[in-house]
């Protein structure tokens, strides 16, 4: 896959530059390095490490170092990067101390949720336990958990944007709650660690995103719509198109996650995402208009009479406490994502 856009790497550097002095000559341990989040964090770190001459390093846990090398061949020769092969649930810890730990493993896989829900739960819980044990025994000072907005359960119809103070929860008797309940319990496990070990715990509750490295052929509607528009296929919406989502560009995601790791108060959760709501139907129209206005859009059924399903964060806490904001507009995010994937095809 091609490198990330230079303008994105420069944006991440510019917006986080004052934060990095504490990482000089330090080591970071990251899980989930081959995923969407992980690829952005690894490449942005290596770029910043070179630009600011931090003399820092990052060790990335991956089940397939060879797959990472094929995916990001432009990164593997950087001497600041070390790949460690292992399963997040059972990995052998690398030797030495790591002051910073980022637990970004476990993708929100719809296929695994449907076919192997117990394996998904095991990966989330046992993986978190293993990472926390590693942090406790390897000198971690700060740990970032990439949690999920799914921990809130179904967003009430009357709540336009869900905030961190909302105390709802997923239905524990619904097998579809596996991912959400796993993330909720992971947050609790982090809190328990912080009560016994002097490590600052940062919680990022992540919503929906778009950008390079987002798969265009899985369960992510926005990825599928981009793929359809680029290929000249009709965009097909299986439902009625009314559920509302919002999408933060991945460069902003990286800025927010690095800021949370380095600046967020310990044991406070922060939503990560965009507040700009779009229905799935309007999302399809927007993607088509931006990339290929001739794209046909087919919606399986007319809207029903029930309340609109929403998955939209309030990010006021992140804006107020951490001075974070969305830098890349939605339309530009779609263009950059499409251009990167098109470059990959070439």
Helix-strand string: HEHEHEEHHEHEEHEEEHEEHEEHH
Classified in CATH, the superfamily is NAD(P)-binding Rossmann-like Domain
Mean pLDDT: 95
Can you give the helix content as a percent range?
40-55%
Shape: globular
The rounded Rg comes to: 20 Å
Structural class: alpha/beta
Question: Order of strands across the widest beta sheet?
Answer: 3-2-1-4-5-6-11
CATH architecture: 3-Layer(aba) Sandwich
User: Which regions contain 5 or more consecutive residues with pLDDT less than 50?
Assistant: none
Q: What is the count of helical runs?
A: 11
How far is it from the N-terminal to the C-terminal residue, by CA?
10 Å
CATH class: Alpha Beta
The largest pleated sheet is described as:
7 strands, parallel
How much of the sequence lies in strands comes to 15-25%
CATH fold-level assignment? Rossmann fold
Number of strands: 14
Our count of domains comes out at 1
Cofactor: NAD(+)
Pfam family, one: Epimerase
GO molecular function: NAD+ binding; UDP-glucuronate decarboxylase activity
Protein name: dTDP-glucose 4,6-dehydratase
């Amino acid at each position: 896959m091609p490198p990330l856009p230079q303008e994105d790497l420069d944006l991440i550097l510019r917006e986080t530059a004052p934060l990095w002095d504490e990482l000089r000559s330090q080591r970071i341990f990251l899980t989930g390095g081959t995923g969407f989040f992980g690829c952005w964090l690894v490449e942005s770190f290596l770029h910043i490490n070179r630009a600011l001459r931090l003399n820092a390093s990052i060790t990335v846990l991956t089940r397939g170092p060879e797959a990472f090398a094929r995916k990001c061949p432009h990164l593997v020769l950087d001497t600041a990067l070390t790949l460690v092969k292992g399963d997040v649930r059972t990995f052998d810890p690398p030797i030495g101390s790591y002051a910073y730990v980022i637990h970004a493993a476990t993708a929100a896989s719809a296929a695994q949720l449907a076919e192997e829900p117990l394996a998904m739960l095991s990966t989330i819980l046992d993986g978190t336990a293993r990472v926390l044990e590693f942090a406790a025994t390897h000198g971690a000072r700060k740990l970032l958990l990439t949690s999920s907005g799914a921990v809130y359960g179904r967003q009430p119809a009357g709540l336009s944007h869900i905030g961190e103070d909302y105390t709802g929860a997923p239905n524990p008797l619904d097998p579809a709650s596996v991912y959400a309940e796993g993330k909720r319990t992971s947050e609790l496990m982090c809190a328990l660690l912080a009560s016994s070990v002097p490590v600052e715990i940062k919680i990022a509750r992540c919503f929906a995103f778009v950008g390079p490295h987002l798969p265009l052929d899985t369960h992510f509607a926005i990825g599928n719509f981009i793929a359809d528009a680029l290929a000249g296929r009709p965009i097909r919406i299986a439902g009625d198109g009314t559920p509302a989502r919002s999408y933060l560009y991945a460069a902003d995601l990286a800025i927010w996650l690095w800021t949370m790791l380095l600046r967020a108060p310990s044991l406070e959760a922060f939503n990560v995402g965009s507040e700009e709501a779009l229905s799935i139907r309007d999302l399809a129209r927007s993607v088509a208009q931006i990339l290929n206005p001739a794209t046909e859009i087919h919606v399986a059924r007319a809207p029903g009479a029930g309340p609109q399903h929403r998955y939209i964060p309030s990010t006021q806490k992140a804006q107020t406490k951490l001075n974070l904001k969305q830098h890349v507009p939605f339309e530009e995010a779609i263009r950059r994502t499409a251009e990167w994937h098109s470059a990959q095809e070439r």
